[in-house]
Structure formats: structure tokens, C-alpha cells
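Fold it.
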Amino acid sequence: MILSVDIGNSNLTLGVYQGETLIHRWRLSTVPLATADDLGISFRMLLTSNGVALDSINAVVYASVVPPLVGPFERMCNRYLGVAPLQVKPGTRTGIDIKYQDPREVGPDRIANAVAAQSRHKGPLVVVDFGTATTFDVISKAGQYAGGAILPGVGISTEALFAKAARLPRIDLSQPREAIGKNTVSSMRSGIVYGYAGAVDALIERIEKESGPLERTIATGGWARAIAPECKRVDEVDPDLTLEGLRIILVRNQLI
């Protein structure tokens, strides 16, 4: 079995694959100061409570945008799983040509998203990842990683609103019923959800002017289900896109 792990700024997402099939998936809060034992205890509990024996994991692949967790995660894999993990980083064979001025600047999660999207669809494509930051990754008609855009994430934006406007309450981001809110909470929901969806659509339209007509736009990430349904230019939501891209990269490095 393969363990695929995306260590993000807000969440740590992990999935277990049997062959090409994702059989288990979990999302944890990222704890930047977690030790190898902290991670090991959490992973062991999740895996064994779902019937996955630790010694059945024969390969681990991961991407991390949280540098302090790289060492503890690698020690955890070696100590608890008996596996040396593959880290997706500059120099890793990904199978996709990165047309960035400095390819080392592209986050490994963004590369994984591009790899998964490219493996399924013809370009031009856009992947919108609604994470701590909202990233737009463009795959060209030739299947190359062409670049993208970065927007402050939904969580960052809403936290700034709560922090700087003392009279505005914290709210959940359920779907608004109307654009014209009749109270503070409904007005905030409308502004955040519809406003953010409009910003995403506008960026996709600008990207399309430069890339040519898009074949598909795929959304992923923790906030995708809240915002993507209101985006006119998003064709599908795939919450497991990053995990799948990591699995494909592992296969391309022939480590299973």
C-alpha cells in the first residue's frame, strides 16, 4: 500500500492507496512543532483503527510547505513505518516540464496538482487550489506547467475581516441564500462566498485570454466545496487531486 501525504500550512492531508485506488483519506490540523512521535501516534491511530497495518505500507510520498515538519515526518516514517519516504522537491522526477523562471519556487503541492490534472485531461487546464492561499496553476496545451497566480486564501481573508472589524462576528461559510443580505451574518456570507467566487472567475477569464480556450478547470483544497459551486468557470471539484498527483510522482520515480 502507498501512503500519500500533503503537509500544508493549515491541514495535513493523508491518503492510503491500494494500487491506484484511494481507500482511506483523512485531514488533520497542521501542528508546525509536532515531533516524530506526535506524528507517529496520530498516524498509527488513524491507520490501525481503519484496519491498515503499519507494516502493510510499503511506500510513502509527501509534499511539504512547512519546513519544520520535514525532519520529524521523515523520522516518523522510518521509525513507525519502516519506510524511507520520497519528498517531492526540486530535482524530483515529476514527468512535467516546468516553465517557471525558477522552477524551485513552485510549491510541491502545486506540482502534484498539475501532474494529476495533466494525467487525466488535455490542456490548456487550470487547477484552482483553495487552501491557505488560493493558487491557480496553468497546464499548457503541450502539457507543460506554464505558471499561475496566487490569491490570499478564503481563511486568511475572513480571519483578517474578523480581526480588523471589531463589530463583525465569526461565521461559518454555509452557502448564502441571497446576494442582498438582510442582516450582518447573511451579508458577510454573501460578500465572502459570492465575492470570492467572482474573483476566481475573473482570474480564470484573464488566464484564458493568455492561454487560449481552456479544456477544463479543476478545483481542489479545503475551501473548494464552499466556494467552487458558485464559480461559473469551475468544471469539477476533486478533493483528492494533490494526493493523486503525489502517487503518480511516486510511480514515476519507480519506488514501488
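The chain has two domains: 2-87, 103-241.
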